[in-house]
Amino acid sequence: MPKSRRDQQISLTRTKKKGLEMKQSLVEEIRKCVDQYARVYVFSSLHMKTHRLQDIRVHWCNSRFFLGKNKVMALALGRTPEEEIQDNLHQVSQKLVGQCGLLFTNATNEEVIKYFDNAKFPVTPHAGDIASETVELKQGLLEQFSHALEPHLRKLGLPTRIERGVPELMKDYVVCVKGHALTPTQASILKLLGKDMSFFQLKMEWCWNRLNATFEDVNPRSKDENTCDSDN
User: Fold this and answer.
1) What is the CA radius of gyration of the chain?
2) In this structure, what are the phi and psi dihedrals at residue 11, rounded to the nearest 5 degrees?
3) Counting Cβ atoms within 10 Å, is residue 222 exposed (0-12), middle (13-18) or buried (19+)?
4) CB-based contact 171:139 (threshold 8 Å)
5) Structural domains for the chain
6) Which has the closest alpha carbon to 218: 132, 112, 83, 147?
């Protein structure tokens, strides 16, 4: 028999009234979705881009995405077997660590995995990302940059000067090497160059099935990194 614990009191202390109302609304919406959708996925997010996320939301308009506070989402589902509102939902709560969210959907597991494995959108890299190619700038005029940007280029470590109103690179310069982690400076230079070496992606990690209350790993390839980039 399904559990009925939706009327239990949830403590959201140390919260201003407006923030409390928002958190309570999030809890209520998540609990409604538990009954409305067949599956709940925990996903990690890489290089979040709002406009790309909106495109995905439009494509999955019959499903619901939640990227709220992890602790509040966990409270809504139940953090322990005693608190969970359906069997095994506490296992979902335990995976809400770092930069991640929930997808509620009636789509089949095959449909979900196929779409999100292929939904990758190029973005400029961040510090710590691995360079996908070696980028080298040759000595000469950097006509893609304005003269006003030349002091910033020098600050980033490029050996430049102004020549005929255009930044000039005085010698060859290796920006990054394929396979090496990027420094903040390298990432900034690649952004100026418009080099997209990283991807925005939602990676489905875990799935809870309401029909049989099972909880499973749907991304075994990356379980060594099953927590996300950073904690909320």
Assistant:
1) 23
2) -85, 120
3) exposed
4) yes
5) 17-124+199-225 (3.30.70.1730), 135-193 (3.90.105.20)
6) 112
Could you write out the three-class secondary structure of 66-100? ECCCHHHHHHHHCCCCCCCCCCCHHHHHHCCCCCE
Give per-residue pLDDT as tens, 57-75: 999 999 999 987 899 999 9
Q: How many CB atoms lie within 10 A of CB 59?
A: 11
Angle between helices 70-77 and 17-36 (to 10 degrees): 50
The residue among 200, 205, 230 whose CA lies nearest residue 50 is 200
* Bridge pairing between strands 135-137 and 100-105: unpaired
Q: 3-state class of 11 per DSSP?
A: coil
Instruction: List pLDDT tens digits, range 201-226.
Output: 999 999 999 999 999 999 865 544 44
The pTM assigned to this predicted structure is 0.73
Distance in angstroms (rounded) separating the CA atoms of residues 93 and 39:
14
How many whole angstroms separate alpha carbon 2 and alpha carbon 122?
A: 43
H or E stretch covering 25: helix 17-36
- Residue 38, Cα to own-chain centre: how many angstroms? 23
Q: Which tokens in the block code for residue 4?
A: 């009925």
